[in-house]
Description:
The structure is a homodimer. By secondary structure, chain A is mostly helical. In chain A, 72% of the residues lie in helices and 7% in strands.
Amino acid sequence: MTIQEARLSFIQTWGALGSAWGIPRSMAQIHALLLTTHKDLSTEDVMQEIQLSRGNVNINMRELINWNLVKKQHKLGERKEFFTADKNIWSIAQNIVTERKRRELIPVHDMIKELKQTKLDGPKDEVKHFETLLKDLEEFVVQMDKLSEMAIKLNKNVLFKNMMKMLS
Amino acid sequence: MTIQEARLSFIQTWGALGSAWGIPRSMAQIHALLLTTHKDLSTEDVMQEIQLSRGNVNINMRELINWNLVKKQHKLGERKEFFTADKNIWSIAQNIVTERKRRELIPVHDMIKELKQTKLDGPKDEVKHFETLLKDLEEFVVQMDKLSEMAIKLNKNVLFKNMMKMLS
DNA sequence: ACAAACTTTCATTATTTTTTGAAAGTTTAA
DNA sequence: TTAAACTTTCAAAAAATAATGAAAGTTTGT
């Protein structure tokens, strides 16, 4: 298999995975392409390599930059902008986790907190059941948050790896 | 606020969250509805409460059953089927993690393993870079898998909670 | 100031995903 | 065996999401 074929196959799979996790296919594909190459790529390069329109590349590249997964590069003597992906897999994971937390975990937590503060009218047992649900959910959200922090902080850490071993 | 309003608000938010994570809105809403009530509900009940078509409820309920989040109940003297959600938040989380792992983590891991076994033709440095990427990704996938196992096993466990405290 | 080189925007189009609902299928009780 | 009560299926419609590409905007060098 040529390296080109391997790349394409990787890009396809990564795109499908992104799609399943609510990340636009093109965004995931662009990210995958940048991951597979050491060279910095221009918008034109990306368009050509994975057959996307200029607008699409532009918009999704900006999003990747927002997520801190990609950086702009300026080449001496070149007018074009080039792009390069962070290649450290743990830092990639950290940025993705942070971003999704901000977008999804926090809004849910806010809703839970708000409902918890609200006095609910209705049959006593129903109110009780609902309040228990809210309590359980909040505990869960808080634990997930801690777990993600922990995973981020300790991913490369010896203590963490030993703990893993200890617990598996 | 009435308990009915609170429920609706919860169902809406849960539906939106599901949507962001690649789970059909209706499926998440049905799940949320079942979580908010102690009573077992029939298809008809669900259709009425969140305004969904019969087919939609039927299909998504089946999916919830596949995910082990919901169980069928038969009531004595009733011909209809009723449905009830698992109310234990940790067991819910476990089932979701297991299911998503099966659907997304494993296929990606398989792709990585396959590419790793393949002899790649191309410029030496490009091949090297790509192989490093594969190695890093595989390590990552394996660690994620371990982390999810750990989270599942230890969620209610005292040792785990103390560890969390220790590390935060 | 001009124009070439490049980037960004956004209304429109295309694609994908989800939902509908009526028809077909199944089960149960008499 | 029949028919009422209920469940399942799936082709078609609707809704949501993503992609296109041409035009507008910006920057840079002369």
